[in-house]
Design brief:
Layout lengths: L1 H13 L18 E3 L4 E6 L5 E6 L2 E6 L5 E6 L5 E9 L3 E17 L1 H4 L10 H5 L3 E8 L18 E4 L9 H14 L3 E7 L18 H10 L2 H13 L1 H7 L1 H4 L1 H4 L15 E5 L1 E2 L10 E11 L8 E5 L2 E2 L1 E6 L2 E6 L7 E4 L7 E11 L5 E2 L5 E5 L2 E4 L2 E10 L21 H7 L9 E5 L8 H19 L6 E4 L15 H11 L6 E4 L15 H15 L11 E8 L2 E7 L5 E3 L8 E4 L6 E2 L1 E5 L2 E5 L8 E4 L10 E3 L8 E3 L2
Parallel strand pairs: 1-7, 7-10, 7-24, 8-10, 24-25, 25-26
Antiparallel strand pairs: 2-5, 3-4, 3-6, 6-7, 8-9, 11-23, 12-20, 13-19, 13-23, 14-18, 14-21, 15-20, 16-17, 16-19, 21-22, 27-28, 28-33, 29-35, 30-31, 30-34, 32-33, 34-36
Helix pairs in contact: 4-13, 6-7, 11-12
Length: 648
């Protein structure tokens, strides 16, 4: 009995199947898309020395497991097509069905690659309704971390085809990319999405890929010490860092009184007036982190009560619970997604209805982000929810730090190699066409390091997939933040410059998105444009199409007669401005580096910039801002110029 228990324990630790039968990784399953025209790895586990055969497309491949119980066969290249069936036989028999051969893309990054179609369902309602593409398939990898080292499999995951129901779970950027490629080349497209919001690039790079970054390698080694990691767990559970996250449910006055504040039977007393949208710190509530309740009575016509409806509450900082007539209809736990909550048919009633929103804010300004939709919609009827509401504070959070002012927070998903180990390593044997990468927001404060980190990750991924210089397509960060009408320094602009520098790596392409941002939203809604631009880059790099896929990219400048003359690559059919006005967002400076706005004009394939007050210009910048006001330089193909600086 002891020997049997020991064997079972060993199987759990190593990940080998406890029952000696053929086992496949989650990725190799029904409805998968395999890479066309490439040698294909099919692998799995079985008992030691077990003979395994794989039958596919009229051929049978044989192998035998090694001492670790692992097996792998390499299938001959197969052209695009399907559906196929695959039969794997050992001591048991597995049959996989509905297999397609096409092009497979790894999609990775942070939240802008995560963002599913459902989060953009208003803008893309028609696209979702028409998304009948059974040969476009998406495999979503859930958030997983491992500090100890690379894993060999995923705990769950399924291939899903694009249809109006399942496409809601697709990455929006990846879906529009795939749709463009499919409609042009008519080959099946597989999307393997490994993305996690708010995560830095080093979390997606393996330990080997970070060997040129000794501080990060030192962190990886330290994180392998479970006693060290457990010390954070103990401090978080007993101390300041996590205390306020659970406490609101216990101390919020809106939940602990005799009648909850969302209950229609509650009689409000002592509530004050406040506007939506807007932050409460801008409306007479000073430095409050905690929960604030909002309440509004709305008059609903009978025509809106016999059908499902939706409540649009823009964006809320940080978390919210929305109640309609006492029923919870929506909850979001962090600030970035737009709030779009479904109202079941029959919940609205003719006449007076009560909307109550509990908003929880942990740091900074709390409340409702401006310039977003705030309305109740049923059919063609709309009730505007902007304007004055009533509010009352439910709880005030104490400052979250120890007496020395230190935070005990520890995010495993932000640790170097943690996401690579758990989410990418298990799929690295799978043959692919290339990579899509949309990330950077989490690294904007470490620009100089990113210049080296992104090329290191590209090299690392290519090394792990062992398929040569696979195409690597990435998105330059769009505009985000307050508009600044004076030339100024910009952390985000410097970061975009760091991203631009990765174009020096062979077989890479960058989709410029400076014109697709929203000043008040880290997750801009225009995901189709991003996917379209990535698809154009793929057409050139991965499919050999002779097209212009990039907007103008700065090449060099000369100084002549007190003016700076700029030259560009990727001018396509010529330089233009999207609005027909003179080029905007150019700033120049002399040796003193005091930047002023410059006049600018297009002369052929060059841009000439000057300012009469700067007699000897030495430096120039374009769209150098977190959120430039009007970056209007494009080529005739309609693609925007990348922000840049020169001479510095």
């Amino acid at each position: 009995m002891k020997q049997i228990l020991t064997l079972a324990a060993a199987c759990l630790i190593t990940g080998l199947p406890a029952i000696a039968q053929v086992k496949l990784p989650r990725l190799i399953s029904d409805s998968m898309v395999l890479q066309r025209d490439a040698g294909l790895n099919i692998w799995g586990w079985a008992s030691k020395g077990e003979e395994v055969s794989v039958k596919f497309n009229g051929k049978t491949y044989h192998t035998k497991t090694g001492n670790e119980g692992q097996w792998k066969v390499r299938l001959s290249p197969t052209p695009a097509g399907g559906p196929y069936t695959m039969e794997i036989t050992g001591k048991n028999r597995i049959v996989l069905r509905d297999i397609l051969l096409g092009d497979v893309w790894i999609c990775s990054g942070q939240s802008n690659m995560v963002h599913q179609m459902r989060l953009h369902s208003v803008r893309y309602e028609d696209e979702i309704a028409r998304s009948n593409y059974p040969e476009i398939r998406h495999f979503w990898i859930p958030t997983l971390t491992d500090l100890q080292g690379p894993r060999t499999d995923l705990p769950t995951g399924y291939w899903k085809a694009a249809n109006p129901r399942d496409v809601l779970d697709f990455s929006a950027v990846a879906y529009f990319f795939a749709k463009d490629i499919y409609e042009k080349f008519h080959v099946p497209i597989g999307l393997i999405n490994a993305s996690v919001g708010g995560t830095p690039i080093e979390a997606w790079t393996s330990e080997e890929g970070l060997r040129e970054f000794p501080d990060l390698v030192k962190t990886i080694q330290k994180n392998k010490d479970t006693a060290y990691i457990n010390s954070f767990t103990r401090r978080n559970s007993s101390g300041s860092a996590g205390a306020n996250l659970a406490a609101p449910m216990r101390r919020d006055k809106g939940l602990t009184g005799p009648t909850p504040w969302y209950d229609p039977a509650y009689i409000p007393k002592g509530w004050k007036q406040i506007a939506i949208p807007g932050y409460w710190e801008d409306q007479g509530v000073k430095d409050l982190n905690g929960s604030v309740w909002y309440r509004k009575e709305i008059d609903v016509p009978t025509s809106m009560t016999d059908r499902p409806a939706k409540v649009f509450m823009g964006r809320i900082v940080d978390a919210d619970f929305l109640y309609l007539n006492g029923r919870l209809i929506g909850n979001t736990t962090y600030m970035y997604p737009q709030r779009r909550y479904a109202v079941p048919a029959g919940l609205l009633k003719p006449g007076k209805n009560i909307l109550v929103i509990r908003v929880i804010n942990n740091a900074g300004k709390g409340g409702f982000v401006p310039d977003k939709p705030y309305s109740l919609i049923a059919g063609k009827d709309t009730i505007d929810l902007k304007g004055y509401w009533q509010y009352k504070v439910g709880e005030v959070f104490a400052p979250r730090s120890d007496p020395g002012g230190r935070s005990f927070g520890f995010s495993v998903q932000n640790q170097p190699a943690s996401l690579y180990n758990a989410m990418l390593a298990p799929v690295s044997p799978y043959a692919i066409k290339g990579f899509l990468w949309y990330q950077g927001e989490a690294n904007t404060g470490r620009t100089a390091e990113y210049v080296k980190l992104q090329p290191a990750m590209i090299a690392d991924w290519r090394d792990k997939w062992k398929e040569g210089n696979l195409p690597f397509l990435y998105v330059q960060l769009p505009g985000f933040g307050d508009y600044n009408y004076l030339p100024s320094e910009s952390q985000w602009a410097a970061f975009r410059e760091a991203q631009l520098s990765s174009l020096k790596v062979p077989n890479t392409a960058m989709a410029v998105a400076i014109d697709l941002g929203e000043w008040n939203d880290l997750h801009p809604d225009r995901k189709k444009d991003v996917g379209d631009r990535l698809a154009m880059a793929a057409e050139r790099l991965a499919y050999g199409e002779n097209i212009i896929y990039s907007g103008p990219v700065y090449r060099s400048f000369t100084i002549k007669d007190g003016k700076i003359v700029l030259s560009f690559d990727d001018t396509g059919g010529g330089l233009i401005t999207k609005d027909g006005e003179d080029p905007q967002e150019f700033a120049i400076a002399g040796k003193d580096k005091k930047f002023v706005w410059a006049n600018a004009r297009i002369e052929g394939d060059k841009v000439v910039v000057w300012n009469e007050a700067v007699k000897d210009p030495q430096f120039v910048r374009y769209a150098w801002a977190d959120e430039p006001v009007n970056p209007n330089l494009y080529n005739t193909e309609g693609l925007p110029a990348s922000p840049f600086r020169a001479g510095e």
